[in-house]
Amino acid sequence: MNNSVNNAGDFTSLQKLRLAILGMALVIILGMLGFVLIEHMKPIDALYMSVITLSTVGFKEVTPLHTTGRIFVIFLIIFGVALVGYTASVIGQIVLEGQFREIFGRRKMENKISKMSNHFIIAGYGRVGAQVAKEFIKKKAKFVVIDRNIEGLNNSNKEGILFIQGEATDDEVLRRARIEQAKTLISTLPDDAHNVYLALTAREMNKNLQIIARADYEDSIKKLKRAGADVVVTPYLLGGIRMAMASLRPHVVDFMLSTSSGEGGLIIEEMVIPQNSQLVGKTLIESKIKDEYGLTIIGIKEKGKDMTIAPGPKTVLKEDDILVLIGHSDNLENLSKALTNNNNK
Q1: What mean pLDDT, rounded, does the chain reach?
Q2: pLDDT, tens digit, for every residue of 161-211?
Q3: 13-96 belongs to CATH 1.10.287.70
Q4: CATH 3.30.70.1450 location in the chain
Q5: CATH number of 265-344
Q6: What is the strand order of the sheet 307-309 is part of?
Q7: Following DSSP, what letter does each residue of 86-116 receive, concatenated?
């Protein structure tokens, strides 16, 4: 479970290239040592002989070789030519597959990930994880994906998604995703046991992390909660509820789908009232959010308390209150800008 390699025994082209270069360096060093010990050459002459022998350029020998030295050269050439051929084939594969660009892109991506903070981590890039990523892209949220499937991750890279290949339950992989600086972990691994283990591991590494986990079975919900998950989502349960609602209250479902997808510009959004905001201490009717921005507040989450659904007009707004609003996207953006500007004054 703590193995960050995609499949045991498999090597990427970059790993093959590193292995080939390491082998070349080792053969050159061994050749140099052989010439020093057998022919008693100076180190610089031995290095020269080792290089021209492996490159098969056919330059003249520094000094005439003895029989033992010639036998040594024969074996050195055999191993050297084979290794040079292997290295050339790996480089050719990288060039043909465009993997030089992938290598440099990978380094650039790792550099971006190393600077992330207050971001989201998606563990698992299956159907559920991919859908979460699409929503994050729409909202321009900062996130990184962890998955062991290199093919799926390469496709993600084409979409500009930051990703890390490896097991999401591996401590080192989580550190590379900057779990200590992350805001939220979304665990969408296909196995409930892995989601439980990941919740335990992530909670130990970041006490303040919000953990949202997927569960395929209702029995796993309690286990995930005990493991440290803040929210547990059961896709099959939610899917069944939505299908039942679509049968019984189809217009309600249409409304929910349109607001969740932003069709027609009408969406549901949440905003936090910042400190020193002009809204602090005002009632809903005094805030004029409805009159000036055309937005309806359908819920208020006061810090440390449960959500108040459909708050009355005399409800007083406080610092750090979370407002759940419904309205057109442009109006929501205008209110967000106003709250930000007021807070910066």
Answers
A1: 83
A2: 899 989 999 999 999 999 999 999 999 999 999 999 999 999 999 999 999
A3: yes
A4: 265-344
A5: 3.30.70.1450
A6: 266-272, 322-328, 296-301, 307-309
A7: HHHHHHHHHHHTTHHHHHHHHHHHHHHHTT-
Superfamily of domain 116-238, CATH level 4: NAD(P)-binding Rossmann-like Domain (3.40.50.720)
Query: In this structure, what token pair is assigned to residue 87?
Result: 């290295």
184-187, strands of its sheet edge to edge? 162-165, 143-147, 120-123, 184-187, 210-214, 231-233
Q: Is 277 buried (19+), middle (13-18) or exposed (0-12) by CB count in 10 A?
A: buried
Which of residues 243 and 17 earns the better pLDDT score? 243
Q: Name 297's Cβ contacts closer than 8 Å, sequence gap at least 6.
A: 284, 289, 290, 311, 323, 324, 325
pLDDT digits 0-9 by tens, 27-60: 888 888 988 888 888 888 888 888 887 776 666 6
pTM, whole model, 2 decimals? Answer: 0.61
